[in-house]
Design brief:
PurM_cligase; phosphoribosylformylglycinamidine cyclo-ligase activity; 60s Ribosomal Protein L30, Chain: A; purine biosynthesis; 7-stranded mixed beta sheet; Phosphoribosylformylglycinamidine cyclo-ligase; globular; 11 helices; PurM-like_C_dom; Phosphoribosyl-aminoimidazole Synthetase, Chain A, domain 2
């Protein structure tokens, strides 16, 4: 009998094959709280674990990877995009001090290629494991006629929990607090529309001497994951000194820090405390602008920032460094909220503190 759905361009058998290929990777993220395994209509997570909390506050986040996917498609390499997705989602959750519990993903594609889908989900699962987050389910949707056969997009959502009196945020921040910067692994997954415009028709396989590898390899460098190291810091006694965290994503460094500062304070971040990775210099040179012009688009070497009590700053930086996250003091919270002259005080609809970058990079 003719398969009418297949004739319309949707191959359910290919979808079933993709599930079989990804099952082991997904199951590896499951702890005792996950019920029902892979393939159910809904992912199940046993919430009785929350009974140990006095006031459990749930945190949720959803995001995608953006146009970095176009680089993966051009190179036909799909094993890193999953980590970018997880980083964009779970590292937003840890910003409030929450531990991510579970995540789901959604893949839309023009045609299900089981091996490609399994590669994508395998990357998501590996990153979920690193972030101590269960991958409890997902969906792969085939959209013939709406998307080209080899096109796809990915998105994800996660839920976390934090004890109510352990929430991090602007209300904890005080003048005199230290601002710690955590190194990025490179571009992460923001600002790729600008990246792709700059790169234009350059060959992604071209080895760029300043990068020490091909352009494509550099652009696909996966997002650094901060959740597990930060959760370990927050669980340590020194973690009591962590007052706020911010994830440097779209909008750049100053805008994302301003979002987690209270109104009436300011931070001047000292550019001389770090050296942006070569990829930023290369792209800026190709684009004909200086790095300061990209500060509202790229992370320029900083993936997360922490606002920490001054007496805890060195210990927090040491713990993060020991976990493989280079961390340094980049500024101090000051009283007063200057405006103009490069100061940023509002982003994403949040009117917070004032932030600007000063000096020159190393």
């Amino acid at each position: 009998m003719t398969d009418l759905y297949a004739a319309a361009g949707v191959d359910t058998r290919a979808g079933d094959t993709a599930v079989e290929l990804m099952k082991r990777a997904v199951a590896a993220t499951h702890g005792p709280q996950v019920l029902g395994g892979v393939g159910g209509f809904a992912g199940l997570w046993d919430a009785s674990a929350l009974l140990a909390y006095r006031r459990p506050v749930l945190a949720t986040s959803t995001d995608g990877v953006g146009t970095k996917i176009a680089i993966a498609q051009a190179l036909d390499r799909h094993d890193t995009i999953g980590q970018d997705l997880v980083g964009m989602v779970v590292d937003d959750i840890v910003v409030v001090g929450a531990a991510p519990l579970f995540m789901t993903d959604y893949i839309a594609c023009g045609r299900v290629v089981p091996e490609r889908i399994a590669e994508l989900v395998g990357g998501i699962a590996r990153a979920c494991g690193e972030a101590r987050t269960a991958l409890t389910g997902g969906e792969t949707a085939e959209h013939p006629d709406l998307m080209a056969p080899d096109d796809y997009d990915v998105a994800g959502a996660a839920v976390g929990v934090v004890e109510g009196d352990r929430l991090l945020g602007p209300d904890r921040v005080r003048p005199g607090d230290a601002v710690l910067a955590m190194a990025s692994s490179g571009l992460h997954s923001n600002g790729f529309s600008l990246v792709r415009r700059i790169v234009g028709g350059r060959a992604l396989g071209e080895v760029v001497p300043e990068l020490g590898r091909s352009l494509g390899e550099e652009l696909l460098e996966p997002t650094r994951l901060y959740t597990a190291p930060l959760l370990d810091v927050l669980a340590d006694p020194v973690g009591d000194g962590v007052h706020a965290l911010t994830h440097v994503t779209g909008g750049g460094i100053a805008a994302n820090l301003a979002r987690v500062l209270p109104a009436g304070v300011s931070v001047e971040l000292d550019r001389s405390t770090w050296a942006p990775q070569p990829v930023f210099h290369v792209l800026a040179e190709w684009g004909g602008f200086d790095l300061a012009q990209a500060e509202g688009t790229w992370n320029l070497g900083i993936g997360m920032l922490a606002v920490v009590a001054p007496e805890s700053a060195d210990a927090v930086a040491a713990l993060l460094g020991a976990a493989g996250v280079p961390t340094w003091r980049a500024g101090t919270v000051a009283q007063g909220a200057p405006t103009g002259d490069g100061w940023v005080a509002e982003a994403k609809g949040v009117a917070g503190g004032s932030v600007r970058l000063a000096g020159a990079h190393r």
